[in-house]
Design goal:
homodimer, alpha/beta, 15 strands, 38% helix
Chain lengths: 333, 333
C-alpha cells in the first residue's frame, strides 16, 4: 500500500536572519564559530541591534531538508511550531510553496514567545555561526503530533536540535511509536556536537532502540561515539547500532555504512558562499533517493550534489533545479 | 555652517518579498513586467500564496538610496512609515545598521494596515515586476514630518511613489518648505511612468517651482515631458525647469544636464541578476558624490558603479564596499 507521505520531518521551525560578519565581530561578541548556540529573546534583540543589514529567509534544519525533498517532488510533510505572526506566515508560506504539507501547530498571536529565529552570521570564508532564539518552537508538545499523519509516513525524520524543549522527548516518542507501529522507519540527524552534549543519553537510547538511519557529520559522530577512539571506529560503532549510517565530511564527501559494507562518495568541488543548510539539503536529497528506490551510493551522490548547490549561495533552501543537476551528473534519466 | 544631515529621504517604507518567477507566471496573473503596480491587502495575500519560496529584504526606493548614501559614510536620515510589527522592525533595523538615522513614525501594532511590502517577481532575465501593498506607509501625514530635521538637511530627496497616499502632497509641501526655508535643496525621483500618470499635475508643479535636482530614467522623463517629442527634447525641457537633470538609460549609462551643459557617462557592463534597486542606488551614490563636492561627471560615474553593484545580486541594498569600488575605478583616492 502506498503511504500518504514518503517523509514527515519534525524540527524547530525557524526563520533565518542572515548577516555578513567579520571574524572580529564574532570574537567581540563571544560567538563560537561554526556552531549553533541558543540565546534568549533579550539576547536576540541585543545581537540583532549589533549586526549589519540582513536578509530574512525561512530556515530550520529539518525544514530545509523537507523543503529539498518536496522540491524534488517527494510527498512530504513538516511538523514544527510557529506563532501566528508575520515571520510564522513567512515560514509556512515557504514550505508550502515548495510543495510540502504544513498544517501549522499555530501559537496564538498574543503568545509571548515569537516565531523562532536564528541570527546566522556568515564570515568571509562562508562558514556560518548560528545564534538561535527558539521562541514558540521550543514548546512543541505531544499534542502537536498528529499520530495519523505520522503513521502515514514511510519515513520520519527527526532533528536533533528538537531535543531542546521541555516536552520534546515525549513528542518524539509519540511520533516514533505511531510511525513504527504502522511499519514506518525512523531517520535522525545529530544536528551538532553541543546538542549531543546537552542530550547525550536521550540520543544514545534512541539510536540503540529506534533509529533506522543516522545522519551526522564527522564532528557529530565523533562526539556521539567518543569512546570509540577515532572517526572510523565511531562509524563502526554507529553501524553496530543503526541499520544505515551516513556521515558527511565537508569537502571529503560522505561515508555510507550498511550491513557491514561501506561506501565513500566524493564531494562536488564548490566555492562556498554560505555553508548554511549543507547537511540539511544533503539529508533531504539522500532521503529522496532512498524513498525513490535508488541504491545507497546514488543517494550519497544526490546528497553531495544538493549540498554543493545550497552552499554556493546565501540561504539554506535550494534554488537551482536539483533534478536537472542529478540529470547532468547522470544519476537520473 | 555644517548641517546635521547631508541628505534626508522621504519615501514609502517597504519590505521586499523577492521570488523568482517565470514569464508565464506574470502572464497568468496579469502582471505587467518591469513596473510597479499597487495591490490591496487581499490581493497581496492571494499573490503571496501563489509565488514560490521567497526571501525578505528591506527595500523601498528612497530607503535604498538612503541606505547606499549612509553606507558611503554620508550623514543621512530617512522618513517613511512602518507599523510596530516584525516587518517594521526589520525595515528599521536595516536602515540603522547601514548608519542612517531612522526615527520611525511608528503605527501601533493594532493598526489594520501592516508594514508595506512589495512582492518583487524576478524573471530569468533579471527584470523585476513589483506588486506593492503600501500598508501604513500610504498614511504618512504632515504630522510625521519633523520640520527641524528637514531644515537640518543640505538636501532632501523625495520619492515619486510617495504621491500615492491621501496626505502625501501636504507632507511633501511641509518638507519642501522647511528645507528650502533653511537654505536646503530638493531632489526628486519620478519613480515610474505609471506613477507619473497618476500624479502628473503634482509632479509638474513641483518640478517647475521646487525641484533642484531631478532623477529619472528614460521612460520616466519621456512620460513626464511627453509633449517634447523625443528623449533629447524631454531632457532639454526638464533642464529648462530644473537646475540639475540626471537621466539614467540602463546599459547606456546616464546623462547629466546643468547650465546648458550636458555629460554622458557610460554604464559599467554587468550581468544582471536582479535589476531591483538600480535607480535607487544610482541616486544614492550620485547624491553622495554631490554632497562631498565631486563634479557632476564623477557623481554620474559613482551612480553607475553603485547601480552595477546592486543589479549583480538579489536585493535592492548594496552588498559590496562601494568606496572600494570607487577607488578601483580611480574616482576617489
Amino acid at each position: 500500500m502506498t503511504k500518504e507521505f514518503q517523509l514527515v520531518g519534525i524540527g524547530n521551525a525557524m526563520v533565518d536572519v542572515l548577516a555578513h560578519s567579520s571574524e572580529a565581530f564574532l570574537a567581540e561578541h563571544g560567538i563560537e564559530k561554526g556552531i549553533m548556540q541558543l540565546i534568549d529573546k533579550d539576547q536576540a534583540v541585543h545581537l540583532y541591534g549589533e549586526v549589519g543589514p540582513s536578509t530574512e529567509m525561512s530556515g530550520g534544519s529539518a525544514a530545509n531538508s523537507i523543503a529539498g525533498f518536496a522540491h524534488l517532488g517527494g510527498r512530504a510533510a513538516y511538523v514544527g511550531k510557529v506563532r501566528d505572526d508575520q515571520l510564522g506566515a513567512i515560514f509556512a508560506h515557504d514550505l508550502r510553496a515548495q510543495g510540502a504539507v504544513y498544517e501549522t501547530p499555530l501559537a496564538p498571536a498574543d503568545t509571548e514567545a515569537e516565531t523562532g529565529r536564528s541570527i546566522v552570521l556568515v564570515t568571509p570564508d562562508g562558514e556560518r555561526s548560528m545564534n538561535t532564539y527558539l521562541g514558540v518552537t521550543e514548546h512543541l508538545t505531544p499534542g502537536d503530533i498528529d499520530a495519523a499523519q505520522v503513521a502515514g509516513a514511510e519515513w520520519i525524520f527527526l532533528e536533533g536540535y528538537r531535543f531542546d524543549g521541555p516536552e520534546s522527548h515525549d513528542a518524539f516518542a509519540k511520533a516514533i511509536s505511531a510511525c513504527k507501529g504502522a511499519g514506518g522507519r525512523v531517520a535522525i540527524t545529530l544536528s551538532d556536537p553541543f546538542c549531543i552534549d546537552r542530550h547525550r543519553d536521550a540520543f544514545a537510547e534512541m539510536l540503540k532502540n529506534d533509529v533506522d538511519l543516522l545522519f551526522a557529520n564527522r564532528a557529530e559522530i565523533e562526539a556521539m561515539y567518543k569512546d570509540a577512539g577515532d572517526f572510523d571506529a565511531a562509524l563502526e560503532a554507529a553501524a553496530a547500532e543503526v541499520a544505515i549510517v551516513v556521515a558527511t565530511e565537508s569537502e571529503h564527501g560522505c561515508h555510507v555504512l550498511r550491513n557491514g559494507k561501506r561506501w565513500h562518495v566524493p564531494a562536488i568541488p564548490t566555492k562556498v558562499v554560505d555553508a548554511t543548510g549543507a547537511g540539511d539539503l544533503f539529508a533531504g536529497a539522500f532521503l529522496w533517493g532512498l524513498a525513490e528506490g535508488f541504491d545507497l551510493e546514488a543517494c550519497g551522490r544526490m546528497g553531495n550534489i544538493a549540498a554543493s548547490e545550497v552552499i554556493s549561495h546565501l540561504g539554506a533552501r535550494v534554488e537551482a533545479d536539483l533534478k536537472a543537476l542529478f540529470r547532468t551528473h547522470g544519476i537520473i534519466a
